[in-house]
Design a protein that fits this description.
The structure is a single chain. The protein is of the alpha/beta class. It has 4 domains: 15-136, 3-Layer(aba) Sandwich (Rossmann fold); 154-294, Transcription Regulator spoIIAA, CATH 3.30.750; 300-311 and 332-415, Transcription Regulator spoIIAA, CATH 3.30.750; 420-481, OB fold (Dihydrolipoamide Acetyltransferase, E2P) (Beta Barrel), CATH 2.40.50.140. Helices cover 34% and strands 20% of the residues. It contains 16 helices and 19 strands. The strands form 5 sheets. The chain has a 6-stranded parallel beta sheet, with helices on both faces. A 5-stranded mixed β-barrel has the order 15-16-17-19-18. A 3-stranded parallel beta sheet has the order 7-10-11, sandwiched between helices. Strand 15 (420-428) and strand 16 (436-440) form a beta hairpin. The longest helix has 24 residues, at 391-414. Bound molecules: iron/sulfur cluster (SF4). Iron/sulfur cluster binds at residues 166, 168, 170, 173, 175-176, 210-211, 275. Iron/sulfur cluster (SF4) binds at residues 166, 168, 170, 173, 175-176, 210-211, 275.
Length: 494
Amino acid sequence: MAAGTEFGHGDGRRSYFVRTYGCQMNEHDSERIAGLLEADDLVAAPTMADADVIVLNTCCIRENADNKLYGQLGHLKRLKEERPEVQIAVAGCLAQKDQDLVRQRAPHVDVVFGTHNVARAADLLTEARVSGPVTEILAESDEFPSALPVRRDAQHAAWVTIQIGCDNTCAFCIVPSVRGREISRPFGELIDEVHRLAADGVSEVTLLGQNVNSYGRDITLALRGANGHVPADAVWRAGGAWASGRRTARPLFGALLRAVGEVEGIERVRFTSPHPKDLRADVISAMAETPAVCEHLHLPLQSGSDAVLRAMHRGYTAQRFLDRLGAARAAVDDLAVSTDIIVGFPDESERDFAETLEVVAAARFDSAFTFVFSPRPGTEAAELADRFVAPAVATERMERLRTVIERSARLGNESRIGRIEEVLVEGPSKRDPAILTGRTRQNRLVHFSASEPLRTGTYARVRVREAATFHLSGELVEVTAPARHRTRIPVAAR
Ligand code: SF4
């Protein structure tokens, strides 16, 4: 959880600070909020205490999100007493879900806005300066906030949100109620955005959505509903392949991967997250046949027990998950796979958990985000309090799960020893600035030595000498492509 997007630097103008809690989707929303504030003539402050406008972009998916928010708001109360002109805004999922509670527990907050109001961030802050505290939460929006300015933290890599919302109903997840139903961005708009990013020097894009595989299903459903008539903007909305081929209602993610991978200057395409039930053959073949699409698949398993998967409403069995994974591995050479797993879902028995361990061992994951189940108020699973697994049991299961995952992660990393890997440089290592850090196409973390400093965004070939559970170590062989981006991309309304 913790802060993800924290922008710094200031001058004489009013300044802002955005703190992000939660997932990449939230981090990207923070980039949009920062972009809007900069377009409104604010500059980024080096620390929260220096800022004139503080935005806490919240998340209610992860554990303890509310405690962290209210703890932070408690600290900010003192700041507000010392400097009453400071404006405090609470945005994101928790604001969407608990706006009244935020107001009640932190009356010193100036603005509360939800996940569908990001575009109004700067306007609401101005409104609050004139007329006092404002709360604005839209229940749902048909508008995609795609035309908003963005202030990106990294200059060589960018997130591109391809859809918002989710049409699934996983019993543990609050996303459908705070992010609404699935809405896909028009195909042509996404490709234009990727072209602009490439022109700015971005070479790696990560396509973001709650269920990327279903991208475009809503677009094609609407177009197909046009009674056989093909609207003039069909190519813009659904892409040329759909408009000139079988115009059935279907997801377009495979076509999108191919089109993004063809944009000149884009060397790496990543995406997160696909839903295992919707991982279709056309997506797998697009991954296999598009050189820019990285050999990495994040496929959230959640549980290996069919009974638990059913209770979670995940829509697949353990065998079906393994079959889809097998199909992806067979098609995509040298594929690395990561996953998400929840331990201790209500009613999870020892036998259910043993099945999870078996599936995890069979899947040979390269890495995993593992979570002990913790109820999110407002979800179906949170209602099952009498069936929660005892914390000590869940903790002990987590230990066993980690042992199995770490074994396959280490084996996967050890299989790279002696190879020369393409690494995209992320900067100096946090522990030792003399060492550089980067990621391989498989998303493996690499620490390596080089006789020369390399800019973030440089592509290099690195010989792997050693492997640990969570990283590789090696040395520079050669630089294959220098970083192309400018040091700072000016923010402009798009
Ligand atoms: S697919 Fe399930 S877990 Fe993912 S966002 Fe949708 S409801 Fe949540």
